[in-house]
Amino acid sequence: MSRPAIFITGAAAGIGRATAELFAARGWFVGLYDVADGAVEALRLQLGAERSLAGKLDASDAEAYAAALAAFFEAAGGRLDLLFNCAGILATGDFESIPLARHHRVVEINLGGVINGCHAALPYLRRTPGARLINMASASAIYGAPAFASYSASKFAVRGLTEALNIEWARHGIRVMDVLPLFVATPMIANVAKAPASLGRLGVQLEAADIARMVWRAAHWRWWPRVHWYPGWQTRGFALVQKCSPAWLNRLSTKLVSGY
Q1: Contact call for residues 49 and 43 (beta carbons, < 8 A)
Q2: By CB distance 3.0 to 4.6 Å, which of 31, 55, 105, 225 could disulfide with 7?
Q3: H-only helix segments in 108-195
């Protein structure tokens, strides 16, 4: 029997890379895909060429995504146990200060790329017993985050897509889930030109390895149905407040954290 296989977008750095390293160390065949093809090829050599496959992929390119999945499915011995849609980009600042083209690019990658992956992967997930799909969302999908408007909107959409597909694809035996962390110590956060107030007030409490471990847990979860995964006590706290508090209190807490 061939080893289980995971296809990861955004695998060159941060959460995608940490997830690839964890799953490879635990015996999975790993697909490493990113626009930074040199970085994923170097990671492939690090993990072992016999245990991984790497390629350049812009997740917003539907044809390229479909071709990459087809090649990976064949290389993995005809199976796709887990698709991890991790690729994403960020734009921070007041909404009107960000160029319109950047807003559209955030949506193209963060939402369009996820839709492309879900659509292309379904035939392969259906052919793999117990297959799962995990989308990278964000705590900004719990309540709209000032200074992250387009990013937050894209992650709300990913959350909605995840919920809908988890219900639809139950008939295929496929579980669909998402992970919704607050700030994680990754190059995406480190490279923010002007840090929003919320970043300074909340701090960065999570490492990429923390999210990778949660993806591993979600991939192997066998108990009650669970769609949303909240890493860290801060994220769980925000989710609880959102569920249990009136709308005005949610708005107030978000304004206090964001400094708006």
Answers
A1: no
A2: 31
A3: 113-126, 149-168, 187-190
The first and second tokens of residue 233, run together, are 């006590």
- In the chain the first and final C-alpha atoms are separated, in Å, by 55
Token pair for 105: 């690019």
Please tell me the least confidently modeled range out of 6-10, 55-59, 243-247.
243-247
- The topology under which CATH files domain 5-258 is Rossmann fold (3.40.50)
DSSP H helices, 76-207, are: 100-107, 113-126, 149-168, 187-190, 197-202
Question: Are the C-beta atoms of 162 and 134 separated by less than 8 Å?
Answer: no
Question: Which residue type does 130 have?
Answer: G
**Burial of residue 201 (number of CB atoms within 10 Å: 0-12, 13-18, 19+):** exposed
Catalytic residue numbers, as ranges: 151
pLDDT score of 211 more than 70: yes
Question: Which tokens in the block code for residue 65?
Answer: 């995504």
Confidence of residue 4 (pLDDT cuts 50, 70, 90): very high
Please state, for a pLDDT cut of 90, what percent of the chain lies above it. 75
Annotate 33-70 with b (16+ C-beta within 10 A) or e (fewer).
Answer: bbbeeebbbebbeebeeeebbbbebbbbbeebbbebbe
